[in-house]
Amino acid sequence: MNDSDLIPVRYLNEYAYCPRLGYLEWVESEFVDNYYTLDGRFKHKRVDAQSDKVTEEGEGDKAHRRSVYLSSKKLGLTGRIDLVEHEGERATPVEYKRGKVPDTPERAYEPELVQVCAQALLLRESGYSCDRGIIYFIDSKTRIEVDIDEALVSRTLSLLESFRELVNKGEIPAPLNNSVKCIGCSLAKICMPDEVRLLSEAVEKDEEDRYRRLVPARDDAVPVYIIGQGSYVRLDGDCITVTSPPPEQERETIRLIDVSQLNVYGNVQITTQALREFCERSIPVSYFSTGGWFYGITHGHTSKNVHLRIAQYDAFRDGERSLEFARKIIQGKIKNCRTIIRRNSTEDETTTLKALAACGKYAVRANSMEELLGIEGNAAHIYFAVLPRLIKPRGTDELEFNFEGRNRRPPLDPVNAMLSFLYAILVKEITVTAYAVGLDPYLGLMHRPRHGKPALALDLMEEMRPIIVDSVVLTMINNGEAAGKDFIKGMGSVHMSDGLRKRAIRAYERRMSTLIKHPKFGYTISYRRVLEVQARLFSRFLMGEISEYPAFCTR
Amino acid sequence: MRKYYLVCYDVSDAKRLRRTHKLMRGFGDPLQYSVFICFLSKVEKVVMLSKLNDEINSREDRVLVVDIGPDSKRTRAAIEYFGIQEKLRDEECFVL
């Protein structure tokens, strides 16, 4: 047995709590800090600090040792023990736990009992005699004695055995069924217990009370965009300061806990200290040209879940699965285009809606990627032909929103300028999400790899284009937030003014933080969170847990 | 979900006081000298407490943390100001 095959005692505890959690953390290397893990670490630290004197106490035979690492190839276990109290040949492991003594007959939960027992077994392997362990509950300041008896030892060994089997099999266990354990579990957003169960078992729709939202509806931190040319970003303690260029040199201070991502346009300087801090805090930094072209991204270490990336590459090589996924996203996109038309039309658009519905049906049955792309092109043509009619005429406005379908590089009219600008921001959004989830944004299943193109982000973006970007652009024009004076014409192309770009970003961000009722799961969630849920469902599809990718369609 | 916390501290050493103030600016807005209002999630609060714990000298300094509750009318009404008022920040995104 290699050292890397040894299972750490900590993960045995997680496995005893929930097999899926143990698997995700140990095999797929997923780990997320939450309140409990951080609070636990903080309290550990305080207890360690308070009891420094204890460490030095005791001489010769009777002593205390902190943070003792032990491994046993025979058991296939390794682990760290918070404290070992030993006297001659007798040793007792002490495990610190945050929280209070639970109100159960054993006065401890099984995962902790198993953990202490495993530690005791490691001590026995090292030649000590060990017939009891101690769990110290920090909040109640109480030591609970645990008898390392026959029953506990055999339970521990059998859990260890089944965990090892699971690891060797490499197949993720099903999520717990509507368990209270999921509430407060740090991996709930990765595991998605309810969503995965419901999508993999095809449970009836009327059981809506089982859809629990286990993560906050939206993030507390918000994106930062820096448009001002010549701005300077510095780190200042737990904040960043953004200084505008001379002569004004206005300074804005933003707390790092309030920053979810940084986006810079054109010539903006960022100090290395700030960049390093962004990496450490997993705050991605995206770079755009002054005109809004998305150039690239700086981020910290990518997700350690290599199994997911391998599954993504496998799906890429599997033509049938790629096509299956592509059909779903195109169908979703067409549905959402219809929704936009239905919501915004003032004239009778029955013919168009019917034509789009037909495209949707053909898309599901497409036999090849070429056929599917043909259908998609056709649907886009129909959709963009209707879009000008959704723009309400504003009599006094001198600007003609003379929009006749999509054009770009460069955009030839105001609508296309706004669409291009915001599509680039949406691509960035999904690229950032893909990295956070552990996917490779450059390897798409429908969009083929091309230099510098985040092809997977473009795939996952299809269904979101109409309901996020197109909707924001329509609203801005129809509200008069974007008017003729906001555009600059030159060399046959059209550009947005700085003021309009700022307003467009704000309108887009308003849309992203809008709370909606999820059409499938019924809970309230922001559009930005929807992107993450979709990326995670896509990973579950890649890992084979759910048989088809459920595209996101609003009603 | 974030909540409002009022954090007050007495720090007896000038250097530690300066460092504590700098640290606290990363978690909230200064309402007065040595008094911050912080809008934090449970996780952020633990991180703040942990950093404060590292910064202060527990024999000479003290910190008081009051949970004022989630963002609501009642919470906002619970804070009354006289004299110079500090503006609280509330942004959807920053566009600079």
Report on this model:
- The complex is a heterodimer of chains A (555) and B (96).
- Chain A has 555 residues and is of the alpha/beta class.
- Chain A contains 18 helices and 18 strands.
- In chain A, the strands form five sheets. In chain A, strands 1, 2, 3, 4, 5 and 6 form a six-stranded mixed sheet that branches. In chain A, strands 7-11-13-14 form a four-stranded mixed sheet. In chain A, strands 10-9-8-12 form a four-stranded mixed sheet.
- About 1% of the residues of chain A have low confidence.
- The radius of gyration of chain B is 14 Å and the shape is globular.
- The longest helix of chain B is centred in the middle third of the chain and has 14 residues.
- Chain B is an alpha+beta fold and 96 residues long.
- Chain B has a four-stranded antiparallel sheet with strand order 2-3-1-4, with helices on one face.
- Chain B has three helices and five strands; from the N terminus they run E-H-E-E-H-E-H-E.
- Classes of the chains: A alpha/beta (555), B alpha+beta (96).
- At the A-B interface, helix 3, strand 7, strand 10 and helix 17 of A face helix 1, helix 2 and strand 5 of B.
Topology, element by element:
The complex is a heterodimer of chains A (555) and B (96).
Chain A: E1 7-8, H1 9-17, H2 19-26, H3 35-50, H4 52-56, E2 62-72, E3 77-87, E4 90-97, H5 110-125, E5 132-137, E6 142-147, H6 150-169, H7 188-191, H8 193-201, E7 222-226, E8 232-236, E9 239-243, E10 251-255, E11 259-265, E12 269-270, H9 272-280, E13 285-288, E14 294-298, H10 306-317, H11 319-344, H12 350-365, H13 369-390, H14 414-437, H15 455-461, H16 464-479, E15 487-490, E16 493-496, H17 498-513, E17 515-517, E18 524-526, H18 527-542
Parallel strand pairs in A: 1-3, 4-5, 7-11, 8-12, 11-13
Antiparallel strand pairs in A: 2-3, 3-4, 5-6, 8-9, 9-10, 13-14, 15-16, 17-18
Helix pairs in contact in A: 1-2, 1-5, 5-6, 11-12, 11-13, 11-16, 12-13, 14-15, 14-16, 14-18, 16-17
Chain B: E1 3-10, H1 14-25, E2 28-32, E3 35-40, H2 42-55, E4 62-70, H3 73-78, E5 94-95
Antiparallel strand pairs in B: 1-3, 1-4, 2-3
